Amino acid sequence: MGPRVSARGARRVTSSGSCSVDVSNGRHTTRRNRGNINVGGNRSSGNRRKRNQQRCASFRRRSEISRKIRLIDEYGNEQYVLKYGKLGITKHTGVMSALEKRALRYRRGACREDEYDKALYQDALDETGTVNTEALIDSDDESSEDVIQRVRYEEIKGVKDDLMRVHGVAPGVKPEGCSRLVYENTDGLRNNISGNDKLDKAKEVIDELQADIVAINEHKLNLKHKRNKNGLSQMFNGGETDIRTVAGHNVHENVGKVQQGGTGLLLYGPLCQQLQFDESGAEDTGMGRWVVMTLQGEDGFKTRVVSAYNSCYNKKKDSGTVYQQQRRALITKFKDTSCPRKRFRRDLAAQLNKWREEGDRIIVAMDANENIYQKSIGKMLTDSAGLNMKEVVGEFTKKKLGATFFRGSTPIDAVWATSDITVVGACVMPVGYGVGDHRMFIIDFLTSSLIGTDPVRVVRPAARRLNTRLARGVDKYVDKVEDGIIRHRLVERVQDAYLTSKTEEQLRYQLNKIDRQRKELKLHAEKKCRRISSGRIPFSEEASIWIRRLQVYRSLLKYHAGKVTNRGNLKRAARRCKIYRPMHISVEDLRTRIKAAKDKCKYFRRHGQKYRRKHLDRCLLRSQNRKDEEAEKKILAIIQREKQRSFWRAQNMAMGKKKGSSVRTVQTSDEEGQVTEHRTQESITEAIFENIHRQRFYLAERAPICKGQMREDFGYLAMSPVAKAILDGTYVYPDYFDQATKELCEECARYRQRIEANSVSSDIRIDRWQERWSRANENTSSSESGLHFSHYIAGAESDIISGLDSILTTVASPCKLGLTLFTLSKIRCIAITPISSPR
To answer: Mapping DSSP to helix (H, G, I), strand (E, B) and coil, where does residue 447 land?
Structure first.
């Protein structure tokens, strides 16, 4: 029986599939298929299969987008209407964007401005009587806010409510003596640094949370690829905090720049001193299944932090999924045909048990891709007869975790720790708080339970506001210091101290009191001399106008809320920003304008550097047109300085030498070989001076004049009566006096006889003081007094400040306080004469 022809002329193939007869045109044609060979000139089976697939896809598409509506009229007649449409499909990026905006309220740094603007908006709605209330009453038209809320709801309606809430208590400021671990599945990172919004957000979150340890999964970076030039250290290194990184990926395949999977660990701050490099890194198979960092503490404390990723099952053998990558590597490299998931569980258990037998403490942050409570990996980690680890968040909150993937229904991510590690805080943030599509874990561990002791806290020095290269700041500084000296009568009080003090101790007390007040005046003037910009937005005319507009719009909201009453200042500020009729702008319109101004500020934060260059070029051109050589010179210096800074910043980031951290512990040994460890700041400083400075840089102490009875006779500064007698030539040298030293002293006495008496004055005049400090190096490190060189260099431009500094330096010198006090005439000669002609 031959094959039948369908109504549309399609061939029907016999059940055997090896022979078919074409009778569509009235002729019999026998065709036998042998692989891909076509016999008889007919089209191959591949074309027929492709056409059938297209027909099936068209049928499925038509079924999906068609809707059959049943209509019944008043007489009971039925009618069916076929209506075509398209299902509302929400993209992954849209869902994650909506979840991110919803979770933004839990971020302290990012949501501060938004909460402030929202509070101003609410106050304006409550206080003003001129608000457009059309959006607040019932109407058929939706307001813009209602539309936004409805769209967001439609995008996230498939996400469970538990995924949008904090499991536990949202973290605050990191407690003292704690180390914070942050774990998240990042769902891929791009390797470039500039223009990488996801990386910028990740660094902002890490900075806000003050994280010490960051564990990441699925960074999807093939770090062996030539186009991936930046490692995790370069990507996440954005400040002065020490950072150490470990990354793992599948090294057996180097197909493209992006590679599924990958694990990584980041270590910040003082814990970097405890890192053991030789015991840290990726696992031995080279598949990047987990990475480990080992922290070595005191008294045998050793903690291992592990970031692991278990692959999802996938049966497509030619795919690039993590499962198939590991399967190919196991077969080709290790001749193992077992399941990669089973091999992962077996290898991880063996490694953790080995570390645990050695007495190490363990923290595991892992994406298990299976239920952590019901499946094998979670049971293996929490088995009381085995590792006996605790699921940290559930143990701390006394409530089991919910779903951790934004489309999931079961917990597949978790952080486990051994029972000898103390947890002081644990929570899971909602989806969208971090950068990936999994929830972020934030755990606070007691630092002493990790490394045995708390690391020393190093305080960063404050920035110098006073810079003599900025003439405007120097002028403000000099004016404020001069006003303080005149108002508090510091020069007159120095004279009164000489007149009223009867003893050297009283004089020293009065001078120290005046010196402390002088220091306070200078430090206060430095705080007020200029503002330090954050530098997030490079200054330019285009950027500054939008920054000022944002400030004016917020001031207008304050005005509507009754917090600003000066209409004149507000109008003038709006006029300078080219905002016309500001008092007629509604509150709803102000909110829209604030959002637009924020978007502009974000744009200039990213692309502001090119506008900065244009701004400097315009300033240079204007100075050249008006032939202002001084301004042209300053602008060229700014351009050159910023160009050099940008060039060397990139060079130092890529090739610069890593800077060492501060010294926190010092070990010294005595004559018997016993080692003593110093940990406090005082003991460390004393140990360094005793064993280094006083041995290497105190060679003069070995001279005979600095030993024995001669040291007592001369003193440290040689200001004793013995020294005066040697210079006068009346000293009788005893027998114990060193012969070489005696010849030097006799030579000094002969030179002293040639110099006239009182030919050299120890008084520091103002002109000498100003000449000395005008040539000083401003970049010299600060002293313990708190006054850096910029204070004295800037003060050298004022006769009042220079006069007070020179007087205090003169009278406080040991040669003055060690002898008789100044007479009133000498004080007036030094102090009053220079200040009679103020700046």
So the answer is: helix
State the amino acid at position 779 in one-letter form.
N
- How far apart CA 311 and CA 324 sit, in angstroms, is 9
Q: Which of 385, 285, 386, 377 is nearest to 336 (CA)?
A: 285
pLDDT of 732 above 50: yes
Q: Whole-prediction pTM value? A: 0.66
Question: pLDDT of 768-789, one tens digit each?
Answer: 999 999 999 988 876 677 889 9
How far apart are the C-alpha atoms of 802 and 793, rounded to whole Å? 10
Looking at residue 774, what DSSP letter applies? H
- What percentage of the chain exceeds 90 in pLDDT? 44
- Can you tell me the distance from the alpha carbon of 240 to that of 230, in angstroms, rounded to the nearest whole number? 18
CA nearest neighbour of 678 among 688, 670, 269: 688
Residues 608/602, Cβ–Cβ less than 8 Å: no
- Tell how far CA 243 is from the center of its chain: 11
| pLDDT in the model for residue 59 | 73
Confidence of residue 35 (pLDDT cuts 50, 70, 90): very low
Helix (H, G, I), strand (E, B) or coil at 74: coil
188: left (phi over 0), alpha (psi -120 to 50) or beta: left
Tell me the β-bridge partners of 423.
445
pLDDT at 353: 95
Torsion of CA 564, 569, 575, 579, to 10 degrees: 0
Question: Please, are residues 227 and 181 in contact by the beta-carbon 8 Å criterion?
Answer: no
Name 441's Cβ contacts closer than 8 Å, sequence gap at least 6.
181, 182, 183, 184, 365, 392, 393, 413, 414, 415, 426, 427, 428, 429
CA torsion angle for 21, 23, 27, 31 (degrees, to 10)?
-20
The predicted pLDDT at position 98 comes to: 63
Specify whether the CB–CB gap between 143 and 382 falls below 8 A.
Answer: no
Q: What percent of the chain has pLDDT over 70?
A: 79
> How far are the Cα atoms of 296, 468, 476, 802 from residue 799, in angstroms, in the given order?
58, 17, 15, 5
- CA 705 to centroid of chain Cα atoms: 55
Cα-atom radius of gyration of the chain, to the nearest Å? 40
Please give the angle made by the CA atoms of 322, 325 and 331, to the nearest 5 degrees. 140
Residue identified by tokens 């000083």 is 776
Cβ contacts of 376 within 8 Å, gap of 6 or more: 345, 370
Confidence of residue 664 (pLDDT cuts 50, 70, 90): confident
* Angle between the N-to-C axes of helices 92-103 and 144-156, in degrees from 0 to 180, rounded to the nearest 10: 120
pLDDT given at position 117: 74
Two tokens at 275? Answer: 């890192």
Two tokens, residue 286: 């080279």
User: What does pLDDT average to over the chain?
Assistant: 81
- DSSP H helices, 335-470, are 340-357, 376-382, 392-397, 447-451
For residues 382 and 389, the answer to whether their CB atoms sit within 8 Å is yes
